[in-house]
Description:
Layout (H helix, E strand, L loop, with lengths): L1 H17 L8 E7 L4 E8 L2 E8 L2 H9 L5 H35 L7 E4 L6 H8 L3 H7 L13 E4 L4 E5 L6 H8 L3 H7 L13 E5 L7 H6 L9 E4 L2 E3 L2 E3 L2 E4 L5 E3 L4 E9 L3 E9 L2 E11 L6 E2 L4 E5 L9 E8 L2 E3 L7
Antiparallel strand pairs: 1-2, 2-3, 4-5, 6-7, 8-11, 9-10, 11-18, 12-17, 13-14, 13-16, 14-15, 15-17, 15-18, 18-19
Amino acid sequence: MKKGIITGIIISILIIYGGYSLSTGSETESAVFQSSRQVQVSVKVGEESQSKSVKITKNKLKEIREEPEAVKPEIVEEDRQQEQGIEADGNQEQEIKEEAEETVKRFSLIDQIEEYRVKKGDNLWDIARRYGIDVDTIIGANDITNMNKIKPGDIIRILPVKGILYKINPGENLWTISRQFDIDIDEIVKANNIADPDLVKPGRLLILPGAKPEFGYKERLQRKFIKPVNARISSYFGGRWGRMHEGIDYAVNLGTPIKAAGSGKVIYSGWASGYGKTIIIEHRKGLRTLYAHNSELLAHSGEWVEQGEIIAKSGNTGRSTGPHLHFEVQINGKPVNPLSYLR
């Protein structure tokens, strides 16, 4: 700042006595010599400008020409005051930066998920390396049935840490999930910015830091389910009415028998908010199917059911606009498109 002011004074003298003029891009300096022998110096750096008046005698002009530092003592006090102002501004900027960083910390990891559009020549290993994660994390956050066949234009969700995406199912809570994946519950709470673990409800999507997918991509190629009911699909997996529809709906009459899409253990049989009377079957670790809006549940928690066995009768319970079966396939706790896994 001092150098800028001194330079401005020198330039003003040159303009007055030598007819010089100067204009240099983002920095401009101008001086006007007033009749009172007072020089008004304006210094503009970038978008900020400051001005100060310095009384200069005729003899002093000669000194400035020969030795610019001669003017320095006369502007020290003003410079000191300005430097204090600049220092205060710097402290304010630091406070703003710290507040912004604290705000970022208050966001959960879910808010920091990115989307990457696959380009020609990409593979999962290169993408994972680019973002500092691993292939398991990409598998755990995306419905990738064949990791060797991603194609340009595909959208891949990128988690901010190594781990998996997990949707809380009816009958689950943070404690059961913590035990299932052997993760300290405090880590889950911190990663997802959860104020009260007791108030977390089924349906919420979590990031489980450090968790590995329980159901790998190789098994996805081998596992195929039968249709839970032979009926017309009335609503497909994907966006619907401004929100995500996480399964497929089969249009059926009230009381239609519902079959288990695959053999496995019933891990939930009961009422679920929004879903009504619901059954969830775990076919193996990381692979589940869900059957919702039933009128009657025939299979109970803890029972083993075989593929094709009747487990419920269709209905119109929960948040429903008419009799139908809502069917989901969940891989590593995340709903995926059921049509990719049906015969």
